[in-house]
Amino acid sequence: MANSDVHLQHISQQFNVDLRELRNHVLVMGGLVEKQVADAVEALVRGDSELAEMVRQNDNDVDKLELTIDEECTRVIAKRQPTASDLRLVVAIAKMVNDLERIGDESEKIAKNALQLLEEGEAPRGYVEVRHIGSHVGKMVHDALDAFARFDLDLAFEVMKEDKSVDIEYKTAMRSLVTFMMEDPRSISRILSVMWVLRALERIGDHARNICEHVIFMVKGKDVRHASLEKTEKLIERS
């Protein structure tokens, strides 16, 4: 259920410009962290040290964007004193930016583990799971940003449901790796690095879900952070 630009139309043309710039900066930051996730996973799976280093360096750009957008949110609230849906938009963006920055942090952790594995030697197991779950959470991040760009409640809810699937995939992969470590103690250090990567990916899925919860708050004015999927779905259906 897309709501187009209904949140971005005001009598004040400058207010329209401020909100559009704010939204566009979030999407730029989102595009950067989406690429960070994909590059971090690729660096690990391919054993690409240059790509891993690039992910780590680009995290500084993500941090700078977070600060810029935070300042913009503060300025819009101070100058425009937004109310109702406008205030929800600015508040939701401020929260989303924190989740995007955390996704960048988790991507950097994956890149660090990729570099460590290059030094220690490739892990004997877990790369298939990393690629699979990495692709899954990467799509979640992409769709969460799309839901924000289009104020699309249905897409936001679909991403929230996907987080359950990622949790199941993560737990299954971890059990498999623990079993392998018990069978081959020599692999423990390298397998632990892969497990930290899987943990980072699972957290990225959590942050994608959080972004979608902020989208629902932005559009509906309801906080669904601790609501069940069933209650959230009923809220959306009443739109």
Automatic annotation (TrEMBL):
Keywords: Cytoplasm, Phosphate transport, Transport. Residues 28-113, 130-215 form the PhoU domain. One of its GO terms (biological process) is negative regulation of phosphate metabolic process. GO terms for cellular component: cytoplasm. It is found in: Cytoplasm. It comes from the Bacteria. GO terms for molecular function: oxidoreductase activity, acting on the CH-OH group of donors, NAD or NADP as acceptor. InterPro entries: PhoU, PhoU-like_sf, PhoU_dom. Homodimer. Plays a role in the regulation of phosphate uptake. Belongs to the PhoU family. NCBIfam families: phoU_full. This is Phosphate-specific transport system accessory protein PhoU. It comes from Hahella chejuensis (strain KCTC 2396). The gene is phoU.
